[in-house]
Amino acid sequence: MLVVCCVLPMASSVASVRAEEGYVARQEGLRTFFDALSASLGQPVILSKAAARRTISGDFSLAAPQQTLERIVRQMALIWYSDGQTLYVYEASEAKSAVISLNTITVQKLDAFLRSSGLHDARYPLRHDGLRTFYISGPPIYVDLVAQAAQFMDNQSAGLQLGQQRIGVINLRNTFVADRKYELRDQSITVPGIATAIEALLKGENRGVDAAINKDGEEHADGMPSFPLGGAGCLRTRICQHDRAAEHCSRCGSRQYPRSGLSRYQ
Question: What is the rounded CA–CA span in Å between residue 60 and residue 114?
Fold first, then answer.
């Protein structure tokens, strides 16, 4: 028992001495240094090819690994990012930037997701105009992660899911929504619009299609018009377009027959 009591303090003192000694590097590759530092950081370190070619020399304390990391990257002009599982290190010249536009969600919502998931890094903020476009610059892995998160969240919110039905907005440019009727000699010709075509496809759903044509040219700032549900009955899918061609013809007093080159003057 006496021998054991003497050995334990000795082993403890050796461990503390090793922790105080830290790490000594003499023209070693940066990858070797970070391999030693990763154990103290508690996560693996991945270096880019450019950063791995660098060498390092000096005496480094491993008692405060985070401080050692920040000091080394500052002195060697490196950039880094950690997602909580892995730490990525790059040369400063490898920094990546991107301008990303969102269609359905706001930048604030994306930023809130990054914060709640632990992926946000305050050193690389999302600089935006208060609307749906933002600029980001930082390590390539972080910029790619933010871009992928923005695309995923934007696509998830692109449509409003209600039961088995999905509501969406279709912007038509070279066709029209409602049916159009033309008189050619003694015949009345009806050219079906997109609403009629979709209604035929949805006959099995027992739901109609209500076509609404927006002729005032006004676009909604948020990119999504309001969708009135119209009571507790069945849900009607609304299709909105900017029918500028029809409005132009009504003003000039003529109607153009699609794909035929014929016109009827009133």
Answer: 33
